[in-house]
Write a structure and sequence with these properties.
The complex is a heterotrimer.
Chain A lengths: L3 H4 L2 E2 L4 E7 L2 E7 L5 H8 L18 E4 L2 E4 L12 E3 L11 H9 L8 H14 L5 H7 L11 H10 L2
Parallel strand pairs in A: 2-6
Antiparallel strand pairs in A: 2-3, 4-5, 4-6
Chain B lengths: L4 H4 L9 H5 L15 E7 L5 E7 L1 H5 L3 E5 L24 E2 L5 E7 L2 H10 L1 E6 L6 H4 L13 E9 L2 H7 L2 E8 L12 E6 L5 E4 L5 H12 L6 E4 L16 H11 L3 E4 L2 H7 L1 E2 L3 E9 L5 E13 L5 H11 L8 E10 L4 E2 L7 H19 L3 H8 L18 H8 L4 H7 L9 E14 L8 E8 L5 E5 L8 H13 L6 E5 L16 H28 L7 E3 L2 E6 L2 E7 H6 L6 E7 L13 E14 L4 E12 L6 H20 L5 E2 L2 E2 L19 E6 L21 H13 L35
Parallel strand pairs in B: 1-12, 10-11, 13-17, 15-16, 20-21, 27-30
Antiparallel strand pairs in B: 1-5, 2-4, 2-6, 3-5, 7-16, 8-14, 9-10, 9-12, 14-15, 18-26, 19-20, 19-25, 22-23, 23-24, 26-27, 28-29
Helix pairs in contact in B: 7-8, 10-11, 11-12, 11-19, 15-16, 18-19
Chain C lengths: L5 E3 L4 H11 L3 E4 L3 H8 L8 E4 L9 E5 L4 E6 L4 H6 L1 H6 L1 H8 L4 H4 L4 H6 L5 H7 L3 E5 L4 E5 H10 L10 E8 L8 E9 L7 E11 L5 E10 L2 E5 L1 H7 L6 H18 L5 H20 L2
Parallel strand pairs in C: 1-3, 2-3
Antiparallel strand pairs in C: 4-5, 5-8, 6-7, 6-8, 9-10, 10-11, 11-12
The chains are: A alpha+beta, B alpha+beta, C alpha+beta.
The structure holds flavin-adenine dinucleotide and FE2/S2 (inorganic) cluster (2 copies).
């Protein structure tokens, strides 16, 4: 017979308290352990820079950094964020625009802008891991971010600049 | 002029909405929340075609947390919507005609409860036979989907004696082309928030391309005067024509009024796929004949368009296709017969290119095939048939003189791909075959003859001392705000801090017509040209009265109105100071109609944008995979107002067309979607596109042109498919007639074992 | 409405096992959860009331070399993220086809969360053809002890059971790949995936192969595998046999093509013409170009 207490770290019916940092701020929030990170960020915390579009990891609009590395927040569950450092678009260029953001502005790398936070988060994640990526590496890092408006024209101009 | 940052100079401007977008601060309408907000969901049909026997909502209503469940019985006004013909029920009650048909809607305190409530609504159906193709809709045995039968609209254009002339042509090509059910795939799915206000009005926060039209349609459904509704409709996370028609609005509006609380609806991708519009799949047969010199003498076209379950803009799309099936070519004998038919396959509607994309693929394919048969260079064959400056339009209507077709025909020859296409394309890998193809198109802007196409705007000094414009147009990413900013700075020589732009709110803007049909830039350009003289003369008069400086010596500029004193520029008054004197006499509005042909030809256009495209492909004949490695565009659309926006429209439109050609198809089986999300509905990623596309903008217009910039919102997406298909033909010897390209047509057996230089493919026609 | 009641995060395999034994069908192991989420969202299966996350179990996400007196192998922990597989020096050294395969799975962000174990247990994962040609062995924990099963056997059984099954009666602990330290001369190895677009695409066809050439043009040994779409990948054993100790002349390659056709047809009677042709094209092409690169 299974002893609940021994194994049980999280329990849904009594919502458990998830602790993590978001954009440098410590967050404690009572949620369902299988709740998606995207819902916690967008709905529970009302940070709507993180977008939602396919909900199956296929578009990249919901991209966030977990411990500095890109993750699709529509695929990540609350319990997987326990104790992690999470950064959403709101955390990037908080005080001063990040050079990636500046590049997006100058190169016209967005139109409707709905894919843009995800794109920028992916690029930030790459630069966290690789300080001077080449063109191919940057392009590969955006394979999971769809954009319907730009045809990637401006985004390619951004890559050209970032890979210099 | 090759468009880029360098050639654009200081017109290459950071978009006014840019910072908010790159920082994630911008609240799209689907990001908004309100206190006490409820969540709405819509119950969709279980079947693509059925009779409804009963609808029982009792159990759903009893669920805790459910605030309202509504059906057709709860609609105070018209149970129908549709831009051109409101035949789509808000809620079905007798029949369902596609799997996205709505039957009921629920508002509940959480999305989960709303979802569960949907499962508790009991609907009894009597399944009916389905019509899952346009051909089947025309069979005498087909069930009738609407009281008038299965034909939504027919076109029949005829000049000369095509049949007789075809018989005498030295060469006739007859071919049937098929195009896919392309999905707009705006990244922001449909959604919005609906807020009943204390004064009894309703505020609608939901993306649309035409706020006033939504207001009218909603007023009709709710049975209230339009003024009781306020539609706030920008910013928008992409639309491409797909959000011009109503989507969530009727449900959100009805639910919020029935609950007296704000209701939010945001479709999942699944719901968006099932309920949303798509591009009309068309089957186009063309029979085109030439004389020995390559002069096209006769052209016979039939178009069969699958409009799906309801009208929306299926009729106008067919009109557009009918006109564009003739294109920029002068052909003496023409017959075009089109049919748009109802089926149980989703709903087809407005989509960037508006029926042009489909027929241009066919028409350009015909020209290329004729050239091949005649052993004439395909580009030369085009020249021999191209329209001249003062020729009539495709449907014989008078059009504003345009030489755009010839200009783009000429200009594309400056593309590096032109030279390259004359050489033998060597490939280091034998199984990779390379080819280059060209195509062109002439694309009408505006809605065309017979459709009200009003425009208008307001220019004023506002009480904060800003030069303010208000337009009923929308910002869905195309860069309207940037365009307006550039125009205003140009007109008034002022700073961006001196201006204020109002769009996307029916309480604040005048009716300006829809932001579609590549018309917006032209409309705002014309409006400002009309308003500026009146505004300036009133402004200068006021300043003269106040300061005594002669109005002739006044000029608007940074921060206010300036004059020259002793050869030095001095500011006479700030805009704020002028505003303090009163602003009532400083507001001007204009109303006018989009330029339209004087000849009564239904749907015929008056203004056109022309384009030619070059595409280079690499076909891997082991796998049949086509990779587009270079695309060059030339576009003749008059002056470039907003270079970043212009370039973006062409680049973006073009890649949408790349998807249309290579991978995109919302596949239906027995009238049910099987590509329900972005895992199976495949749009291009960054790795599928050339790293850069060049856009050569031809700004020249005929002397004395009064109309200014023609639109570029659609033209980037209309001519790429035939260029890719021509390139594939040059690479492999195979003609493609159906999109997206079926890879199976392009594979061959073990080419690398063969010693021949160019590998023949083991089948001939590609059909 | 089915909802999750609990998410369990056991610290060792025994605990994981007993939770699973308690809830059986009402429970489900989760590694990265990326595939599971798409299944839930796509309505292909209900979310289990008890999710048993394996992420707190130690040492399941390591790649290391293990040498015993009679053999050396590379052990890949089942919880190793795909991104970590790509970066790992040992895997790059000994399993380039596997690394290549991982690079072609999904997109970077998914690979930061999805695991190799999860990929294997989807039974259609793109890593499988590469693992098959490396003669991989799976190590399971069955509640009492660890048991080994060759991947090939596991997959051929899986094919006839529930495809894409969630209910795994055992816990996948690691994957072992025999190490060939003294690489024979003239080794070759290839992997290719074909999808609807260039990247970030479900595969239509995936192939992998490895082997070596003996004297001149003669193929020595060779292992081939194919998969893609919803079909469970398999080894092309008849083709391998037909190739061994033969000269790769043009005529012979033509013959091999028909052998491949037959074998594909036998393995999957519903296989499309396109898939058959492309699989054969790619295998023959890769063999031929390996030969040319000698
Ligand atoms: C957007 C997207 C794109 C994708 N693209 C690809 C692709 O190109 N190629 C491809 O192959 N796959 C693809 N996948 C599928 C999937 O994400 C990957 O296969 C991934 O490796 C699965 O790993 P996971 O850790 O997330 O598995 P999970 O989803 O956690 O688990 C997968 C299955 O294995 C079971 N399971 C997991 N670990 C164990 C264990 N140790 N013991 C017993 N059972 C276990 C789970 O119960 C479940 O049935 C894609 C997924 C997404 C969301
Ligand atoms: S919403 Fe997460 S990837 Fe699309
Ligand atoms: S800018 Fe609209 S989707 Fe990328």
């Amino acid at each position: 017979m299974i002893q609940e207490d021994k194994f049980m770290l999280v329990e849904e019916k009594i919502q458990y308290v998830l602790n993590f940092t978001l954009n440098g701020e410590e967050i404690s929030i009572a949620v369902h352990p299988s709740r998606r990170l995207v819902d916690i960020i967008r709905t529970d915390l009302d940070l709507t820079g993180t977008k939602i579009s396919c909900e199956i990891g296929r578009c990249g609009a919901c991209m966030v950094l977990i411990d500095g590395i890109p993750h699709n927040s529509c695929l990540t569950m609350a319990y997987q964020c326990e104790g992690k450092e999470i950064e959403s678009i709101e955390g990037i260029g908080k005080n001063k625009l990040d050079p990636i953001q500046q590049c997006f502005l100058e190169e016209g790398a967005f139109q409707c802008g709905y894919c843009t936070p995800g794109m920028i988060v992916s690029l930030k994640g790459l630069l966290n891991q690789n300080k001077s990526p080449n063109y191919d590496e940057i392009e590969q890092s955006l394979a999971g971010n769809l954009c319907r408006c730009t045809g990637y024209g401006g985004i390619n101009r951004v890559i050209k600049r970032l890979s210099k | 002029m090759l468009l880029d940052q360098d050639s654009a100079g200081d017109k290459w401007r950071i978009r006014p909405d840019g910072k908010e977008k790159v920082t994630g601060k911008l609240r799209y309408l689907t990001d908004m929340t309100f206190p006490n907000m409820l969540y709405g969901r819509v119950l969709r049909s279980d079947y693509p075609h059925a009779r409804i026997i009963s609808i029982d909502t009792l159990k759903a209503k009893a669920l805790e947390g459910v605030v309202s469940v509504i059906t057709h019985e709860d609609i105070p006004g018209l149970n129908g919507f549709g831009i051109s013909n409101p035949d789509q029920p808000v809620f079905c009650f007798d029949f369902v005609r596609y799997e996205g048909d709505a039957i009921a809607a629920v508002a509940a305190t959480t999305p989960e409860i709303a979802e569960e409530a949907l499962h508790l609504i009991e609907v009894e159906y009597d399944k009916l036979p389905i019509i899952d193709s346009a051909e089947k809709a025309l069979l005498p045995t087909a069930p009738k989907l609407h009281s008038n039968g299965n034909i939504l609209h027919e076109t029949d254009y005829c000049r000369g004696n095509t049949e007789a002339v075809l018989g005498k042509c030295v060469c006739v090509i007859e071919e049937t082309y098929e195009t896919p059910r392309q999905m707009h795939t705006y990244l922001e799915t449909e959604g919005g928030i609906f807020v009943p206000e204390k004064d009894g009005r309703l505020t609608v926060y939901a993306p649309t391309q035409h706020g006033y039209k939504d207001r009218m349609q909603l007023g009709r459904i709710l049975g209230v005067p339009d003024e009781r509704i306020r539609v706030i409709s920008s910013p928008i996370g992409g639309s491409f024509g797909g959000k011009d028609e109503l989507n969530v609005q009727p449900y959100g509006a009805l639910l919020s009024l029935s609950c007296g609380k704000p209701v939010k609806i945001h479709y999942s991708r699944w719901e968006s796929v099932k309920a949303g519009l798509k591009r009309h799949p068309m089957k186009i047969t063309m029979k085109t004949g030439v004389d020995a010199n390559g002069k096209v003498l006769a052209h016979e076209v039939t178009i069969l368009s699958d409009t799906g379950a309801y009208s929306t803009l299926g009729g106008p799309v067919l009109n557009f296709a009918t006109e564009h099936a003739i294109g920029p070519y002068q052909i003496p004998n023409v017959v075009v017969k089109g049919k748009a038919v109802f089926t149980n396959n989703g709903v087809s509607g407005e989509f960037r290119g508006f029926g042009g994309n489909q027929v241009i693929f066919a028409l350009e394919g015909q020209i290329d095939r004729l050239a091949e048969k005649l052993h004439i260079d395909p580009w030369e064959l085009r020249r021999r048939n191209l329209r001249n400056l003062n020729d009539l339009g495709p449907l014989g209507q008078r059009v504003y003189p345009t030489n755009g077709a010839f200009e783009v025909w000429e200009a594309i020859q400056r593309s590096p791909l032109w030279e390259k296409s004359k050489q033998d394309l060597e490939s280091s890998d034998r199984w990779i075959q390379r080819g280059i193809g060209f195509s062109m198109a002439m694309h009408g802007s505006g809605l065309g003859f017979g459709i009200p196409d009003p425009a208008g705007g307001i220019l004023r000094l506002n009480n904060k001392g800003k030069i303010e414009v208000a337009f009923g147009h929308e910002e869905f990413g195309q860069g309207l705000l940037g365009t307006l900013e550039i125009l205003l700075l140009d007109h008034f020589n002022c700073e961006k801090e001196d201006i204020h732009i109002v769009i996307g709110d029916t309480d604040l803007v005048p009716p300006s017509g829809s932001s579609t049909a590549s018309r917006t830039t032209n409309m705002v350009w014309q409006a400002l040209n009309r308003l500026k003289p009146q505004f300036l003369s009133a402004l200068y008069e006021k300043v003269e009265n106040e300061t005594g400086v002669n109005r002739k010596d006044l000029k608007t500029g940074s921060g206010g109105i300036w004059t020259y004193k002793n050869g030095k520029k001095v500011r006479v008054m700030t805009y704020g100071e002028v505003a303090k004197l009163g602003i009532e006499d400083l507001e001007f509005s204009t109303k006018f109609h989009y330029p339209v042909t004087p000849d009564p030809v239904m749907g015929g256009h008056y203004l056109y944008t022309c384009t030619s495209v070059a595409a280079e492909v690499e076909v891997n004949v082991l796998t049949g995979t086509v990779k587009v490695v270079a695309i060059d565009h030339t576009v003749a659309a008059g002056p470039v107002i907003n270079p970043m926006g212009y370039l973006g429209q062409i680049e973006g439109g073009s890649i949408m067309a790349l998807g249309f050609t290579l991978s995109e198809d919302a596949v239906m089986e027995s009238s049910e979607y099987i590509t329900l999300n972005l895992d199976t509905y495949v749009i291009p990623t960054i790795l599928d596109v050339p790293r850069s596309q060049s856009v050569d903008a031809i700004e020249k217009l005929p002397d004395g042109d009064p109309f200014g910039p023609r639109g570029v919102g659609e033209v980037g997406s209309v001519a790429l498919a035939p260029a890719i298909v021509a390139a594939v033909k040059n690479a492999t010897g195979t003609w493609i007639t159906k999109l997206p390209i079926n890879k199976e047509k392009l594979i061959c057996d073990l080419p690398y074992l063969n010693n021949e230089k160019k590998v023949g493919i083991t089948h001939d026609s590609g059909r | 409405m089915l909802t999750v009641e609990k998410v369990w995060r056991p610290k060792d395999l025994y605990d994981a096992w007993s939770i699973h034994q308690t809830y059986k069908d009402a429970s489900c192991f989760v590694s990265g959860g990326t595939w599971l989420r798409t299944q839930w969202k796509g309505g292909l299966r209900h979310i289990s009331p008890h999710l048993i996350s394996l992420d707190q179990i130690h040492d399941m996400d390591k790649i290391e070399e293990k040498n015993t007196s009679d053999r050396s192998e590379l052990l890949i922990g089942s919880m190793t993220k795909l991104a970590d597989c790509i970066k790992h020096p040992l895997l790059n050294k000994y399993g380039s086809a596997i690394v290549e395969a991982c690079k072609r799975i999904a997109a970077p962000s998914i690979r930061n969360q999805g695991t190799i174990g999860g990929n294997i247990l989807t039974k259609t994962g793109d890593s499988l053809p590469a693992l098959l040609i490396h003669d991989a062995t799976l190590t399971w924990f069955n509640g009492k002890e660890f048991e080994n099963e060759s991947l090939e056997v596991y997959l051929s059984n899986a094919k006839y059971k529930e495809v894409n099954g969630v209910y795994h009666p055992k816990i996948l602990v690691s994957i072992a790949i025999p190490l060939i330290k003294n690489k024979p001369q003239n080794r070759f190895s290839f992997y290719q995936k074909v999808g609807k677009r260039e990247a970030f695409t479900p595969s239509i066809i995936t192939i992998a192969g490895t082997g070596n050439f003996a004297a001149n043009k003669q193929i020595g040994t060779c292992l081939l595998a194919a998969g893609g779409g919803t079909s469970v990948p398999f080894r092309l054993t008849s083709t391998e046999l037909a190739l061994e100790n033969n000269d790769l002349t043009k005529d012979f390659l033509q013959h091999i093509q028909s052998v491949i056709y037959r074998e594909l047809q036998r393995e999957d009677s519903t296989i499309s013409e396109y898939k058959k042709k492309v699989t054969a094209n790619l295998i023959v092409y890769h063999l031929f170009s390996s030969l040319k690169n000698l």
